[in-house]
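User
Here is a favour to ask of a fellow structure person. I am asking you to supply a protein in sequence and structure-token form. Please set it down just below, with no commentary around it:

Assistant
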Amino acid sequence: MTITVDWPACDQAEAVRRREISARELLDLHLQRIAALNPRLNAIVSLDEERARAGAAAADDHLARGYPVGPLHGLPFAVKDTHDVAGWRTTYGSPLFADHVPDRDDLVVERIRRAGAVLLGRTNVPEFAAGSHTFNRVFGTTRNPRDPSRSAGGSSGGAAAALASGMVPLADGSDMGGSLRNPASFCGVVGLRPSLGRVPSWPSTNQWETTSVSGPLARNVRDVALLLSVMAGPDPRVPMALGDPGGAFGPPLRGNLVGLRVGWTSDLGGLLEVDERVAAVVEEAGRTMVRAGAHVYSGHPDLGPADECFRTLRAWHFQAALGPLLREHPDALKQSLADNIRAGESLTGADVAHAYEQRTALSETMRQFFTDYDVLAMPVSQVPPFPADEEYPTEINGKPMDDYLAWMRSAYVVSVTGCPAVSVPAGTTPEGWPVGVQLVAAHGQDRRLLEVAAAFENARAVGV
């Protein structure tokens, strides 16, 4: 039996624990794949082979001495280039931080290291993770493994592309307006935006601003559950963290679709303009669920207020976080990001208060919706992967988009509900471009959502 980089992460980790392959050997396999594909895809940046080899050697020594090992022991890992890694170049995709080296790990990195992962580099991001197409002036553009002429999505585009091409077995990411889900859909992998509070973030300049969350990406749902079990769980430094231990979310997953109540929609009642090719794949996903025993109804919550709510909170967040940097370097940020920061400058306290009123109402809307349904099924992205030389889609089905956010509304209107949402591969367009279906569950129901996602994944795999 030959172990390859295309094996599931759970199986790779088990092979290391059983000493069927060493961490050194597993790292070499991944470095070979990186050397072969990364020059074309540009998914992994700040690669440090020497440090990675030292980490793999330490992992092998640890195992040889009989010490307890974590769930990711010996797995090669590249951290998203917006998460600080102590002693490792962290640019946030900005020329202003091209030589920045943090002196401490972010909390998610602490946990990934503690679980035994072998760090080898970073995954590419858009500038300050703004926008759902991964390009910047430090490292350039990340391309889609299925078709390098197309976008890999963003902001976790480097992570999704590295996964889909076998350069890493797992990847971390973060998601404000779809930054885990959009790239997962574009690259044909699985991306989970957890419930608010499920994966705590530290350090933070504003622990009470909860639009963005960190979460896992993987090539299958079981592997997503493995990484979530490492990333999730309370921390005394984060008062809003949910109390369930991370281990509660790990594999195995035993869900099925029989009797599941699914609210299905292709456009949220006309709120979304969805590319016809994407809509066709989402419709087939609904039929797959029916054949697997689910009860699928045409139904959706009223998420109309979520558009204004998200845009207000996003502009407020960007202005608070990056406003001083823009004032000091007015020409150093990409135009779409600078415009969004400036939009935040005109917001009043009443505007922000209204956004939080809307968010509170949306939370109640979702609570009521999930008394009638178990999950919501809808598009992840409104478009398939678009050309990599464009910043964002300017039209869908011939209808112009107002700005660089409008095409990703299907993801960000879910963000402000606080509910967990997962992108699961659902098919391809006639051109062969991946399309994911977005499954959403009630807040706190991350485990149940993973079980449903795994059951859908299995139904597709067996041809239901």
